Amino acid sequence: MVSNSSVAAQLQGQLERIMVSIFTGVPCVALLTINAIILFTLRSKQVFRETSRYVLLTNLLVADSVYMMISQILYIMANSRVFLSYPVCGTLVLYAMLTDSIFPLTLAVMSVERYVAVCFPLRHSSIVTMRSTAAAIALVWAFSFVNVLIRVVLMCQFPFEELDSLHMRTVCDVFAVLLTPAAAEYDQVFKISVFSFTGLTIISSLVAVMITARSASADKKSARKAQSTLLLHMIQLVLGLSSTISIPVVVALFQVMSWVSFVRMMIVIYVLVLLLPRCLSSLIYGLRDQTIRPVLLSNLCCGLKPAARTQISPQ
Predict the structure, then answer these.
(1) Apex 273 CA angle, 271 and 275, nearest 5
(2) Fewer CB within 10 A of the terminal residue: the chain, N end or C end?
(3) Burial category of 151 from C-beta neighbours within 10 Å (exposed 0-12, middle 13-18, buried 19 and up)
(4) Buried b (16+ CB within 10 A) or exposed e, 186-196
């Protein structure tokens, strides 16, 4: 016969899982809604659809939104103690990794676009075209897809045939595809290489823009705005890197904290480190852009604030 204490413990556990799902689900839905409004804004006018920097921002938002949705699905399943099979878990994690690598690479492309706009203003329209922008986006996705294929090959080296079942005995997380030492080492090398490349690209673009701004023939206003944009990209990169750094921090906290405290800390880390950076930086980018801001504010206010006439501003 089941004792009252065990029933109470089960009810308490179920209540905690429900509360955790609410505390993480509500911010995720709110942030995804903001991303959806920004995406709607970027697709609402032809001038946004035919300007390279807005097309790149759209690509970034799409990847970030998919990443947030998959992360939330995995988080809810882990919180609910839902154990998946290795193929299903691996597919979800690899999709998240695909969109996660889009983030820094797109920032690199956006930084180069700002560098060309300030340092080569007369050639910007001929260099940064819709065709070259589409090619850059295709290259970013192709590179990320190759990364996923390599991870699949490394994951297949694990001796799954020696397992009694392909059903996992733990929750699904990023470690589900890091089953071999080679896979874990490749993961570290890839992340360090991508973030280093993006960081160097942003810093190089920023330095070039600052040097150009000192010349007498430079457009001072345009150069200052480009510097602010590149600094925003650097902040975005640091926020994105924080999600990678948080993994060993989480492992260390799990070893020294009680389960209840660990769960509460995980909620804070998940919302502030994984979810918030994927929305906040794009929202700031949209609000500080003189072209997007009137239309975006109108959409955020459900059309109550009239949108001003849209003209491209030299960000």
Answers:
(1) 50
(2) N
(3) buried
(4) bbeeebeebbe
- List, in order, residues 6 or more apart from 90 with CB less than 8 Å away: 152, 155, 176, 177
**Under DSSP, is residue 167 helix (H, G, I), strand (E, B) or coil?**
strand
Q: Are 195 and 241 in contact (CB under 8 A)?
A: yes
154-196 pLDDT, tens digit each:
988 888 888 888 888 888 877 777 888 898 899 889 988 998 9
The Cβ of residue 161 has, within 10 Å, a number of other Cβ atoms equal to 6
CB 82 within 8 A of CB 128: no
In angstroms, the CA 75 to CA 255 distance is: 20
DSSP symbols for 191-207? HHHHHHHHHHHHHHHHH
Report the run of H or E that residue 242 belongs to, with start and end. helix 220-256
Beta bridge partners of 167: 85
User: What would the pLDDT profile of 102-121 be if each residue is shown by its tens digit?
Assistant: 989 999 999 999 889 888 88
* Section 142-152 average pLDDT: 95
The reported pTM is 0.84
Q: Residue holding tokens 């906040």?
A: 280
